Amino acid sequence: MKKTTQRLIEEYKIKKNLYEDFSKAVYGILNSLLNDRGYKFQITSRTKDLASLEKKVDAKNKFYKKLSDVEDLSGIRIVFYLESDIEKFIADLKKEINDDLKVEKNNKQNGYKATHLILGLAQNRVSLTEYSRYAGLKCEVQLTQILYHAWSEIEHDIFYKAPPELEKLDKKTVTDSKKEMKNAMDNYLSNAAGIFEKVVSKLMRKNIKSSNNKE
């Protein structure tokens, strides 16, 4: 293990409970905002384990000189029913929680599609006693649509948490299988997500028109 990695691992062991509490605090804040705004969603939280941190730092050592450089030790994943709700939620987040967000669109070649945010609590919140210990901490918030989420969970379990038997397969079989998964995303799930948006939008317009007529 590299010296920098070892140093960050030891520091994280000491601070891991703090990051776990931070994950729970951000979860509570975002869950309340989502419910108050009437979103259809699923939300989960996690804190990076030691093995994942070691792998991440070793892979990109030059980028991580101190623990605060690792911005996804705390993590939240929010799954929306509609992709259009993602941009709406980002706007709500900037207005209500912190307008200093780092926003990154992730459309990877393997088909993964999500928006990642790096979020810290604003000064007006960390000035409160219950949040003061989280000053300077960062949390990665992943936003995605439910069909993309289902696809990424399946793809991740098959290829990145694969059983030992998969390692025995030849590379061509694995490569072809990955292409089939991406094809399913490109030709079916993306289209289905678009259809969901159109159907909901059409029904909402009709509902609004019907309500106006009643008035």
Strand arrangement within the widest β-sheet reads 1-2-5-4-3
Task: Give the proportion of residues in helices.
Answer: 55-70%
Pick out the low-confidence regions: 208-213
Q: Ends: how far apart?
A: 70 Å
- Which CATH first-tier class of the largest domain would you pick? Alpha Beta
CATH architecture of the largest domain: 2-Layer Sandwich
Look at the helices and sheets and give the structural class: alpha+beta
- The backbone outline, from C-alpha atoms, is flat
Q: Could you tell me the radius of gyration in angstroms?
A: 20 Å
Largest sheet: 5 strands, mixed
From the 3D structure, determine the CATH topology of the largest domain: Beta Polymerase, domain 2
Write a structural description:
- This protein has 215 residues and is α+β, with helices and mostly antiparallel strands.
- It folds into 2 domains: 3-149, Beta Polymerase, domain 2, CATH 3.30.460.10; 164-214.
- Helix content is 57%, strand content 16%.
- It contains 7 helices and 5 strands; from the N terminus they run αβαβαββαβααα.
- It has a 5-stranded mixed beta sheet with strand order 1-2-5-4-3, sandwiched between helices.
- A hairpin with a 5-residue loop joins strand 3 (102-107) and strand 4 (113-119).
- Helix 1 (3-36) crosses helix 2 and helix 5 (146-159) packs antiparallel against helix 7 (171-214).
- The termini are far apart.
